[in-house]
């Protein structure tokens, strides 16, 4: 470590989580260095569905999925896919997922997600206002629609469960939906409207705006692959493919790639895996929807964005190394057929795949280890965009060594030590 002027904090990972944290830390007067192997925002944060999904307070799986699982896994183009060659590696993760469905663990997860989600909108409003970019977030709510009359029971049950968790939710009839979203077809029988949600107009631009603000606050960005990191003496040493950097603290915010560096720094193994997801961007589809619409039966979301309509979803268990199967992205266009009065145009559409960073209890790790030298913020699964701003506020307090977080969710459910 020969760096004459080491950073206070080296942030590894320039996705939405790392960049939001870097800006927060710089504003607290810290000298921040962000290291990413790619340009900022090119990981999962590039292509997500842009949904501020504060209504999603339930874990990624519940007991009802077990019944549907075999049929879902047999369908190679279904919403859930397992690459069978990946099964041996994924098995321990699945076992933990199942164990987390036990009532006490399930309840802990719901409370943990809910605490973050309830703080998310306010945190985003503060962050966007601070960079004068409030217009990037549309606070127009979002809708979950159903087409089959026999789905009504499931919708009513979901509404009841969400109300029990204080999630603002209203039932809308098919006609009420078509009044607000006239392009949707008569196939839609009704749905749940979530007034406390919203969507971002361009998730990638959002990262770029935060990078600009971080730069203006003195944050330095470096494009390097981090190979190793160690706690050494009074700080940490971060080895990259182009040299070693010293810092007083390090923040691991590498999304789905965070497990290896966490183990190197803390000695603890974290059961992080990835749920690969896809999107298909339809650039010629402007003004089709007033807000994000999810289909209950078809299991994907459609979000109106600055660059067109984004169809997104699907969960694929195939690890970090296998190439994407873009047929799954194109499948999203087929899935949209019948939902609109006129089918969507796929002209000039672009497919994309990204790695959701997922832990088997559906909660992120947000914590401080090694006497505060190591900070952790990863594993936000389907909700990293939603929870980025509140995560940054929590990391800001953790970095300053505050004994307990004030005005923010308590750390308990997110601690690394739960594994
Ligand atoms: C299809 C899809 C739809 C989604 N929709 C939504 C949604 O609507 N709402 C929502 O809230 N969330 C959504 N998500 C989830 C959300 O996108 C993620 O939770 C979030 O982007 C994670 O952010 P991150 O910063 O942790 O990870 P990333 O954005 O993946 O960033 C991690 C960064 O770490 C870097 N990195 C990794 N290893 C190294 C290394 N060794 N050295 C240097 N750099 C490294 C990577 O290059 C990357 O840039 C969706 C995800 C997908 C895939």
Defining traits:
globular; alpha/beta; single chain; nine-stranded mixed beta sheet; eight-stranded mixed beta sheet; FAD/NAD(P)-binding domain; 33% helix; 419 residues; binds flavin-adenine dinucleotide; 11 helices
Break the fold down into its secondary structure elements and pairings.
Blueprint: E1 7-12, H1 16-27, E2 32-36, H2 44-47, E3 51-52, H3 63-74, E4 80-82, H4 87-99, H5 103-130, E5 137-138, E6 142-146, H6 152-164, E7 170-173, H7 174-180, E8 190-194, E9 198-200, H8 203-216, E10 220-223, E11 226-232, E12 235-240, E13 243-252, H9 258-266, E14 273-282, E15 292-295, E16 300-305, E17 308-317, H10 327-336, E18 350-358, E19 365-369, E20 374-378, H11 384-399
Parallel strand pairs: 1-2, 1-13, 2-10, 4-17, 6-15, 13-20
Antiparallel strand pairs: 3-9, 5-9, 6-8, 7-8, 11-12, 12-13, 14-17, 14-18, 15-16, 16-17, 19-20
Helix pairs in contact: 1-8, 1-11, 5-11
Bound molecules: flavin-adenine dinucleotide.
Structural account:
By secondary structure, the chain is α/β, with parallel strands linked by helices. It has a domain at 1-62 and 101-134 and 199-270 and 360-419: 3-Layer(bba) Sandwich (FAD/NAD(P)-binding domain), CATH 3.50.50. It has 11 helices and 20 strands. The protein has helices at 16-27, 44-47, 63-74, 87-99, 103-130, 152-164, 174-180, 203-216, 258-266, 327-336, 384-399, and strands spanning 7-12, 32-36, 51-52, 80-82, 137-138, 142-146, 170-173, 190-194, 198-200, 220-223, 226-232, 235-240, 243-252, 273-282, 292-295, 300-305, 308-317, 350-358, 365-369, 374-378. The strands form 3 sheets. Strands 4, 6, 7, 8, 14, 15, 16, 17 and 18 form a 9-stranded mixed β-sheet that branches. Strands 1, 2, 10, 11, 12, 13, 19 and 20 form an 8-stranded mixed β-sheet that branches. A 3-stranded antiparallel β-sheet has the order 3-9-5. Helix 1 (16-27) packs parallel to helix 8 and helix 1 packs parallel to helix 11 (384-399). The longest helix is centred in the N-terminal third of the chain and has 28 residues, at 103-130. It is globular. The model has no long low-confidence stretch (mean pLDDT 95). Bound molecules: flavin-adenine dinucleotide (FAD).
